[in-house]
Write the structure tokens for this entry.
Amino acid sequence: MKKLSNISTFRAFQSNNYTLYFFGRSVSQFGTWMQRTAVVWVVYSMTHSAFMLGLTIFAEQFPSFLFSALGGVAADRYNRYKIIQITQIASLIQSVLLAVLVMTGHQNVWPILGLSVLLGIINAYDVPARQSLINEVVHDPADLQSALSLTAAMASLAKLLGPALSGIILHQFGAGVCFILNAASFAAVMISISMMKIPKTTPIPNKAKQGVLKELVEGFTYIKRESSIGWIIVMLSITGLFILPYDTLIPVYAKEIFNGDAQTFGYISSFIGAGAVLGTIILASLKETVSMRRILIGSTLVLSVGLIGFSYTTNFMLSMFFAAVTGFGGVAQFTTCNIIVQSEAAPEMRSRVISILLTAIFGMLPLGSLLIGIISEKIGAPKTLLFEGIAGVIIAFAFRNILIKKKKNSPPDQQLLEESEELFINKT
């Protein structure tokens, strides 16, 4: 691992704590995608209803939208290591309950939906704590960019390969084994945390006991005051509403445009995933002096160009190229937003800011999927994707001056939010 950490892309592995975090989360992410795939398969096998598939996904995502902000307050108020340990135990129990339901031949879909809701609530507390913990497990703030990018690359790879692995296990052993394996994967995170060299006390500034609502409002007030961060969240929210739900139309392209089947859909999804992995690896390889705001604008344009090219390309291989470009731009945009927010937010506000960022995404994506579906019914999938690509170009140019000028014009004392993050803030 030492030789690997000498390469700039993998410099975050210089931190033993991050290395443990990375491998623990890698195992867990693969288990998570195996379970998600298996849940969808079980629900469809029981109901043969596309509506119930949508409801299953909604049941997991919507609670995360409702509770993520509260999860951010908890991560700022309490020890993040302990929060993650609790959420892993809760997730393990949820997976075991799913396995018991399936292995005992239970044929009622509603308990499965109830457990999906439970997982969504768990994730609302797990994700803000897990994301903000990355700042604590890298020993050098200059490695944060590498750490966040590598973490996103791992998540993209798990999203790409996890469902395929789940399909093999589903076919050979059944859904119950997928759930058991996912339950076991949470143990990897708990083991990795137990092996970390954590200070006896992990002080979190500003832990004076306030009401939860007051701390939540404090988070929104902070974002309003630190408008350079606030505008980034606004930009990502608009993108989540109008552009990122493009994947809603991928099944339509697979069947109607390319006259294909589920395998065709799998090919398109795989190329999008491959582009996403490449995007995060390139982000991890960038020098610390690069402007993340310019990368944010550039990745939005790349995403837009990918959508415009994909929208009217009928040649399948050329379409796969544009699918990879789209995946590249989409994950690079979100990862860049995450890097900026984590490196510039004050430590005592970091988890709340991350949770608000996640709330914006969880809230806008379902609404955007509904909106894109309605528009596609009226004007067709190709014109809808073209509309999304053009909207992305407009958003990139509209926010370019806002983000870059605001950062240049912000006073020095605003930029130096934390001494340990000084390098990141001065770079932009």
In short: The radius of gyration is 21 Å. DSSP finds 17 helices and no strands in the chain.
